[in-house]
């Protein structure tokens, strides 16, 4: 919540100031996309200086002549690797004249994106459980994972380089110095670090003293914790003997502990700007990263306006696997962001780890709750009622006080008591601070109806627990039916293996993709609830300020935490198969995913019931199988262009994504019946009209398992939908052999009351060494005509 609140404060501050200044002459950041060779041959713009001149020449032709500054001083960034063009500070009028210039493909206002974490940036006095237990030592060796985030805290033991080989010779990245950061902060683990603040600063000009109060390091150093957390999740070193205070011990370790990492700081206290993100991607791809991890984004927008989609297209062409968080706007339908077909889109799932902290009511009743409060653990039965605290709810008589917003609580009413606070969508850790400030002794965070049973835990500044909606209803019933309600909290430490997991997190964004329902998104789910990973040494429970209770680890939840797990797995797969394309790496991760939980039952959804394909995509990642998938579905960059043609995108829209021209009429004539060789199968039919619809999809698989292997098809079709596969047997002689097949999906009008259906196709290896199972989910959606 820290970030969001700061943002709101800044907004209202600006709103007060701006009306006076807000003439048409206000400078804004725009991202200008160019046709690559217009106005200069490729060789003429091959050096940074000539490129800047070339970019400035566009501004010279469009900016108002009375501006005293040279146009090039308005350029924030010149892009040339994943994007052709520049970011500049211009007025609306100048943007309009730029748009009209020949050679200009598009002029888009900068866009603010957010980190995909669920509101809490608070530290945990505890530490790590082995979320990366599958990661075998040495795996990921030789690969480089780039993290676009809030930078990192280089002193964290997770970034120690003991046992790491030197950076690969192809690496051309740098360790950019700045505020509290210099070249000596990089090592063989952290081989590069850069920061991008121009887009951010153009939007939020702060004077130096303000900047200091925000503790924004103008350098790759992380002042928030998010980037430290995600980087260590992907490729953090093993930290042996990291013990959980009061509850067991564990080893902290990223998913690919043998991989190198490079930090690209593109996010600041007020979010992440597209212009900074593009600059980070531009450098990262040129520097030589193999995998890019992005735990940030916004709401879904058309691909040709989405800087992450555009930047990641060329990254993919250059062989970089781009892994993105799906976003936390679930369980709303079609909330999935970062859904470009060349990106690996990751939703969040729970772990089988619980932090029980029960509420024992004065009447003997017990409510299950969860907490990371590092309190003394105890039994439920011990002790009488004499240590109970009086319970109080809505102490202040206002709606704000029901939610324990700052300043809403009546001090006399809460002093020394256990305060019940509705959770809703406001900052959880902030409620704890509000209760403590008002003199409360403990807190029960009570889920409201929209939170259901979702259980992202935090570390609070006072003893606290979080209860689900069902428990919250019981709790309030008890309070209203009792003259002097009381309760105590019983902390039960860390429990592993009890709960049914993984399950899809309630907040994890859902498909079908708003912009392109013909590709199933998200692709997979990975751990993203109550994830413990590295944390800056200076950030205490109140967020950015220095606090006595320092820790090297913290707990966070969000698809932000899920994406770096998958980035780490991508590093493992690439380390085992260095020649594989990003599409092959993604295919391996998708077709080997689990659809059952640790108990062997169907993966459940935090929303209730079994998880569907729009919640979990191909399923929950399984790294051990991903490195040996048997068959893979490969995609050439040109196939993505043809795919964009099948979506009806115009020549210009496709150009904005790919930076290359295409004649879709000719392209589709050449590729009749084209379908993208995606490892999942999604069919979008038009609803309305009684006649049945059918679609034929072609797929090609490459044998990467064993020579002389045979696979047979098994499939499940949803009721009312016919699915046929031909041929139903695929035989491969050599390693690398390719075989094609057709999937025919046929359906009458959608099943009553539904607009989607799902099934699956599995290629199962038969015979002696037959162990590979290559699974693709099938999703059918009906969209209004
Ligand atoms: C980097 O910073 C550290 C700590 O401030 C300092 O001791 C060291 O000399 C600096 N190194 C370089 C290369 O500037
Ligand atoms: C955190 O890590 C630093 C550097 O390795 C170490 O000196 C410090 O003792 C650690 N702090 C805690 C609380 O474990
Ligand atoms: C695109 O290709 C079609 C078919 O080959 C051709 O008729 C048409 O002229 C081409 N359009 C352009 C703009 O080149
Ligand atoms: C595959 O089968 C062929 C024909 O039966 C045989 O010659 C070849 O040695 C086999 N290859 C392997 C690796 O087993």
First-residue to last-residue Cα separation: 40 Å
Number of helices: 19
Our estimate of the beta-strand percent is 25-35%
What is the count of distinct domains? Answer: 3
CATH class descriptor name of the largest domain: Alpha Beta
What's the pLDDT, averaged over the residues? 84
Strand order of the largest sheet: 19-18-25-21-22-23-24-20
Helix/strand/pairing category: alpha/beta
Residue stretches low in confidence (pLDDT < 50, at least 5 long) are: 1-24, 38-43, 119-138, 243-249, 540-550
Query: What's the CATH architecture of the largest domain?
Result: 3-Layer(aba) Sandwich
Give the distinct bound molecules: 2-acetamido-2-deoxy-beta-D-glucopyranose
Q: Helical percent range?
A: 10-25%
Output the radius of gyration: 27 Å
Any idea of the CATH topology of the largest domain?
Rossmann fold
Number of strands: 40
Specify the biggest β-sheet. Answer: 8 strands, mixed
In CATH, what is the homologous superfamily of the largest domain?
Answer: Peptidase S8/S53 domain
Which descriptor suits the 3D outline? globular
GO molecular function: serine-type endopeptidase activity
Domain PA: 390-474
Domain Peptidase S8/S53: 140-600
GO biological process, one term: proteolysis
